[in-house]
What we know:
The chain is mainly alpha-helical. The protein has one domain (about 1-10, about 30-175). The chain is built from 8 helices and no strands. It is elongated and about 60 Å long. It starts with a helix and ends with a helix.
Amino acid sequence: MTWELKLMEWANGWWSLPILDQVIPWVTHLGSHIAVIVFLIFCFILMRKRKTLLYLLILYGIQSGVVYGLKFLINRKRPLVFLETLSKLSQGPGEVLDPGFPSAHTLYAFMMATLLATWFPRYRILFYIAAGFIGWTRIYLGVHFPTDVIAGGLLGYGITRLFLYRINQRLEKATD
């Protein structure tokens, strides 16, 4: 954790810009629960398949159980507890300050990116760049350490890929 605090102090000195301080607190919420729920509703409206909505809700539930189970099991404090001046959240929407590890916003961003990359493989790089950017916003705002974001991204991607694999196996067995 010490090296991450030093990295964040160093980075805060050169990557902080007034315009980013105004915009990033809003952009970061593209990985929030509200964004996921809007995403799920949008998917349901486009696909109009009740079974797809059920699968997406199950995936969201699994992801939420894993991320919050780990958060409260590990109970890692957020960087802003150690570096109070680092957080830029006072200039944007509010934030619930549960334990930091892993980053739920990053996990959900990578969950949505992985789903979109599966459905639209031609644009997968853009989806993963957007998810990575959302993860970076969590570090920029001082609410997560880099390892929180890395773990959230890996979990979001990995659990979603595993879930899609299991769903495909189930669908293949049903057609046999």
